[in-house]
Design goal:
The protein is globular, with a radius of gyration of 14 Å. Strands 1, 2, 3, 4, 5 and 6 form a six-stranded mixed β-sheet that branches. The longest helix is centred in the N-terminal third of the chain and has 14 residues. With 116 residues, it is of the alpha+beta class. It has two helices and six strands, in the order αβββββαβ.
Length: 116
């Protein structure tokens, strides 16, 4: 069984966020089929959280096709630090997706990797 195309996953994710009353948008469209997805959650106070694809070792063998994320860094930081990290990611992999949502509470609705 294969993973959902990135474009379909992103559309569904944004729909989920918007149904909860959050603003969300695609800031950068990556590869339709399998581009990595990075999610920035702006807290509306100048800080943000960044969620990046979890390493393959974090995937559960019983559900290997789901997308899971880790927060990196593990706490909210100044938005300029997040933007610098995203610029580096684009330089490394031009096929990345960047999705941004705004939520003062920091809700993200992402599946997070289990800590080992």
């Amino acid at each position: 069984m294969s993973r959902l195309k990135s474009s379909i996953w992103v559309a569904g994710y944004l729909r989920r966020c918007q149904s909860a009353g959050m603003f969300g948008a695609v800031r950068r469209r990556g590869a339709e089929e399998a581009g990595a997805v990075f999610v920035k959650v702006a807290l509306m106070d100048g800080t943000a959280m960044l969620f990046v694809p979890a390493p393959q070792t974090s995937y559960d063998d019983s559900r290997p096709v789901e997308r899971v994320f880790i927060q990196s860094p593990p706490q909210a930081v100044d938005e300029t630090a997040i933007e610098a990290r995203l610029a580096k990611e684009i330089g490394f992999d031009p096929d990345v997706w960047i999705v941004e949502v705004e939520d003062r509470e920091g809700r993200h609705f992402l599946d997070l990797a289990k800590k080992v």
